[in-house]
Amino acid sequence: MSSLRIVKGGVCSAKGFRAAGVAAEIKYKGRNDVALVVADEPCAAAAVFTTNKVAAAPVLYDREIVKGGKIQAILANSGCANACTGEQGLKDAKLSALVTAGELGIDPRHVLVASTGVIGRPLPMDRLLAGMKAAAKKLGNTTAHGLAAEKAVMTTDTKPKEACVRTTIGGKTVTVGGMSKGSGMIEPNMATMLGFVTTDAAITPAMLKRALYLAINKSFNRLVVDGDESTNDSVFLLASGKAGNKAITKGGKDFDAFREALEAVCISLARQMATDGEGATKFVTVTVKGARSEQDAARAARAVAKSPLSKTSWFGRDPNWGRVLAAVGYSGADVVDMKAEVFYDKVWAFRRGQVADEAQLKKLEKVLKKDAFEVVVDLHLGQAESSIYTCDFSLDYVHINADYTT
């Protein structure tokens, strides 16, 4: 029986971590935009990054640093992505890590950096480093400290995203907590998203990496807002070991308990990002089942979740199931339209060639008036199933992105 418990908290909830967030005027005045997450000692660490071939300087820098398997601090900023900034961008990423290490009195090889914001603009290093030094003086381990750090990495997000769970491993209470940012330019394939997860579990870097990859594939990689992959996507996982459990060095009962807790945090953060998609008015889960393979199920679900026509119909409360089935058809998955069924929640719209009549459409319209619902496509070709978390496309999405750099 699982001992998993959902509790209030975030990136500071696990033992051995502090955080802070301050306003440094990276882009806007009067809002937090520089964050620090710091461990008391070097931690086992793992990270996953964007697969976009145009990767930001922080991603290029961190990919090398995290190979060491030990991290003690993460410096993050919003307002400037430090992407497509060439050699200067890399120098700035490295310098920010070096200065942060000096300020904290730690090894520079144990510092990661993360940025989010507008692409193609250099980091305002004087403001960033001044903000880092101010944040270093405000570090603390309370919920408020974690929330301040979370607010510092938000861009077009309208609300903070935090999650925390506790479980029992080897008779010890283990905490996993985290925060993330992301509202638009999101289709993670490890998109603009950043995730910071901390735990006090004792676990080796190799097993931490394995757990993170498994969790990512059930959470952030099942998230679509608009189908655009960012240049800056990064998810970091740090383990302090302060829970006192026997170190997890291989698969088994303890690893499974940790993986379950990590997945719960990552899934919660992914769902919060879909709910807070730019201009979103509805949270939608797209599930494709009865597929011939898991790959087919995932392809079909992702195609529906990315379809602008489907997403705008959800915003308009229009049960236009034809758009859903059409997206499945071009997804590359095997489909026989006369065998397929389409449901909104449990209300059918299309059943093996039978289409919704006037009375059925009224039932469907009631479903689409809800803030959250599920679109289900049953292909009746096999046993495979996959779900994607997404949202609708509203008029506000266009306005937000039309004015983003101006």
Descriptive overview:
- The chain is α+β, with helices and mostly antiparallel strands and 406 residues long.
- Helix content is 34%, strand content 27%.
- The protein has 11 helices and 15 strands.
- The chain has helices at residues 57-65, 86-104, 125-136, 143-152, 205-218, 253-275, 294-306, 308-315, 321-330, 358-368, 395-402; strands at 5-6, 17-22, 34-49, 70-80, 111-118, 161-169, 172-181, 194-199, 234-239, 283-291, 341-344, 347-351, 354-355, 372-378, 384-391.
- Strands 1, 2, 3, 4, 5, 6, 7, 8 and 9 form a 9-stranded mixed β-sheet that branches. Strands 13-12-11-14-10-15 form a 6-stranded mixed β-sheet.
- Strand 12 and strand 13 form a beta hairpin.
- Helix 1 crosses helix 2, helix 2 (86-104) runs parallel beside helix 3 (125-136) and helix 5 (205-218) packs across helix 6.
- The protein is globular, with a radius of gyration of 22 Å.
- The chain starts with a strand and ends with a helix.
- The mean pLDDT is 92.
How much helix, percentage-wise, in residues? 25-40%
Beta-strand content estimate: 25-35%
Shape: globular
* Radius of gyration from the alpha-carbon trace, in angstroms: 22 Å
Low-confidence stretches: none
Structural class by sheet pairing and helices: alpha+beta
First-residue to last-residue Cα separation = 53 Å
